[in-house]
Write a structure and sequence with these properties.
2 copies of one chain form a homodimer. By secondary structure, chain A is an alpha/beta fold. The first copy, chain A, has helices at residues 16-31, 46-57, 63-87, 119-126, 153-164, 198-206, 214-223, 244-250, 280-290, 321-330, 332-335, 362-372, 396-406, 411-419; strands spanning 3-8, 35-40, 92-95, 102-104, 113-116, 130-134, 137-140, 146-148, 169-174, 195-197, 227-231, 239-242, 259-263, 266-275, 298-300, 309-317, 339-343, 346-352, 379-383, 386-392. The first copy, chain A, is 37% helix and 25% strand. In chain A, strands 3-6-2-1-9-11-12-10 form an 8-stranded mixed beta sheet, sandwiched between helices. Chain A has a 4-stranded mixed beta sheet with strand order 5-4-7-8. The two termini of chain A are 32 Å apart. Chains A, B: Belongs to the aspartokinase family.
């Protein structure tokens, strides 16, 4: 008998019909002889509706109270799901994050999980019950206030519970079939990836693939919890996110490149004419860090000998753009830079693959593909298993398609690459 | 500095504007130098909407899950209210029933309060915070499941917290100005009662006056918590519900009769032809009690000597009518009665007043007034401070008005009776 943690997102429980369908799926898993813990998000637009309500009474609601408000969303969906399961003749009990033992720090709206003490869940499982747990929420250590985990919170709840319960697998359900080699809306020939390592999935998530949140993958890697990303609308196998050793053992002919991710949500700031002195760059990034802005890529030009000045460019979430600009303008005199340039019409394309470690020439092929598509590269950054470039936002689709094709990821070709050894 | 517990019902927090208005009222109370604890119900129709959702996924939802679902309602209203108060520059913290220390038994949907341990509320008050507490909900002792208190739950939460915190007063806000001598929709000359004893208020509540629930008044009487029933739409004094000793001390010229209550929600069942043997009536009422039906009035006719049989009539909430009829039909053979008659077109009129203890003739005046209005009395029951009669439902308005007039309760007259001694 396996212990399976399943997580259903808001679109999977959008209305009563969806809730009943998910209930059937859960009951089928239970009937197959498994213990089942389900983590559920708020229904469809519930969270947005609650935020609207908050804005109607206060322009800047206190974070503690916003958390109290928003956690009503999962409370509703989890109770309804438990009822729907009971209606199919199976015992189900719902638990809030607090009841499930999800202990967090006190950072309302973006709390971090400190500990998971799922004693009540374990006891309910032992009594044969299906457990439904509210995603996205916890209770703060010490003050015992209700907290929310912020973006990707429900996925993280699921993986954290799976780790604490020593579950066999954490299944993440959404409305897509798994992780693809590229966004199928851009590359119709994109193919579902059957298995991917935590490291590659982390790079995919950090590069704009929205299917799993970075945080949840990090948690899964730390505790070595296999994640199965799949659709709640089909019975098909999805994508397994597992330890790299589990992949290399199973698939000798692993593809060099796992996929091409893209991200339209970033902007680029260029600090023009920074005096080329020791510590100036450090000051710039300390200021941004104090404003709690996450920087992605950084490029510093060689300084012009004639002026003793240089330009520093970096990318960041465009939602943080205004905050970053005003933080930098406050230290303009102190640093002595000349001006700021802001561009939110950029996009990032990333090539991810553990295979690129051992295959030289990947970078050259990637750049050649993009150049061949007539797209100009503005910035470059690399990790051991990823190459990212910044291009004009309008060029994203063209560049993604070109890279996908250049690495033989298109569906017909890929079958040969991945399954070549077996002859299928 | 006083400690004031205020309770706002669903109509007082029906939308964002209402929430903001209530927030101003709470802040004014705080600014006047009081510690303030607020108990709040779910907004407007929220509870009904949640019940609708439950019915969409399950015809008979488990009580535990229904409680989990419904408690989302107060969670939303209390968080919004805390936000609205914060927006006025005052610190406010919301607490669930569980966080506020409302400990109940495990009877989901109709839990009873076992204990109140408001340590977190006390600590927040000591730090100068306004406390907002979810009404209607608690947490079960032992299993620590979320429970709801059932009808009148939020009022009971408020009184229970007031008792546990040793508050100076519990203010119950609704959309009416206080407790009236009769329903003003039936008797336009009905007058607001300035002060009424717990005992009289209990009889009023039990007799169909909907403004305060029986349970909340019982709780207040047990702990001697003064209740101030008033409107959230005006600043007028409402009705004080207090210990009778506090009334007799203040108002020498107390009215004999406090008010006339009525109730259209009951039905009458007559068990026809019951064998006149010892224990037959006991069997009937044991069967009904096992079906968890609350009986109100009972009348047993003298048995006809010729047949050795008698009729037993009783009243009960008409919502329990079908359950009662089928429970009785199951024991028809065993008891040997002839038939059942059911009538839900009845109404009950009750005259309540502590003064009737020491004033003979009240019963005679009451019956004469009803007879004088041409209304037939079907059943009678009395307590020390109440007389109730059952009449045809269509006669309710006529009979209430006649009784109200007969006891000089109409507005012009009453001023003379109640305030006669002071000359006002």
């Amino acid at each position: 008998m396996a212990l399976i943690v399943q997580k259903y997102g808001g679109s999977s429980v959008a209305d009563a019909e969806c809730v009943k369908r998910v209930a059937q799926r859960i009951v089928a898993t239970k009937k197959a002889g498994n213990d089942v813990v389900v983590v559920v998000s708020a229904m469809g637009d519930t969270t947005d509706d609650l935020i609207d309500k908050a804005e109607q009474v206060s322009p800047l609601p206190p974070a503690r109270e916003l958390d109290m408000l928003l956690t009503a969303g999962e409370r509703i969906s989890m109770a309804l799901l438990a009822m729907a399961i009971a209606n199919l003749g199976h015992e189900a009990r719902s638990f809030t994050g607090s009841q499930a033992g999800v202990i967090t720090d006190g950072a309302h709206g973006k709390a971090k999980i400190i500990d998971v003490t799922p004693g009540r869940i374990r006891a309910a499982l032992d009594e044969g019950s299906i457990c439904i747990v509210a995603g996205f929420q916890g209770v703060s250590q010490g003050t015992k206030d209700i907290t929310t985990l912020g973006r990707g919170g429900s996925d993280t709840t699921a993986v954290a519970l799976a780790a604490a319960l020593n579950a066999d697998v954490c299944e993440i359900y959404s409305d897509v079939d798994g992780v693809f080699t590229a966004d199928p809306r851009i590359v119709p020939a994109a193919r579902k990836i059957p298995r991917i390592s935590y490291e590659e999935m982390l790079e995919m998530a950090a590069s704009g693939a929205k299917i799993l949140h970075l945080r949840c993958v990090e948690y899964a890697r730390r505790y070595n919890i296999p994640i199965h990303v799949r659709s709640s609308f089909s019975q098909k196998e999805g994508t397994w996110v597992v330890d790299s050793s589990d992949i290399e053992g199973h698939e000798m002919e692993q593809a060099i490149i796992s996929g091409v991710a893209h991200d339209r949500s970033e902007a680029k700031i260029t600090v023009v004419g920074v005096p080329d002195k020791v510590g100036e760059a450090a000051t710039i990034f300390r200021v941004l860090s104090e404003a709690e802005i996450n920087i992605d890529m950084i490029v510093q030009n060689v300084s012009a000998a004639s002026t003793g000045r240089t330009d520093i460019s970096f990318t960041l979430p465009s939602s943080d753009g205004q905050t970053a600009l005003s933080a930098l303008n406050k230290v303009k005199e102190r640093i002595g830079f000349e001006s700021l340039r802001y561009d939110d019409r950029i996009g990032k394309i990333s090539l991810i693959g553990a295979g690129m470690r051992s295959h030289p020439g990947v970078t050259a092929t990637f750049f050649a593909a993009i150049a061949g598509a007539g797209v100009n590269i503005e910035m470059i950054s690399t990790s051991e298993i990823r190459i990212s470039v910044v291009v004009a936002q309008d060029d994203i689709d063209t560049a993604v398609a070109a890279a996908h094709r250049a690495f033989d990821l298109d569906a017909d070709q890929v079958e040969a690459v991945v399954y070549g050894g077996t002859g299928r």
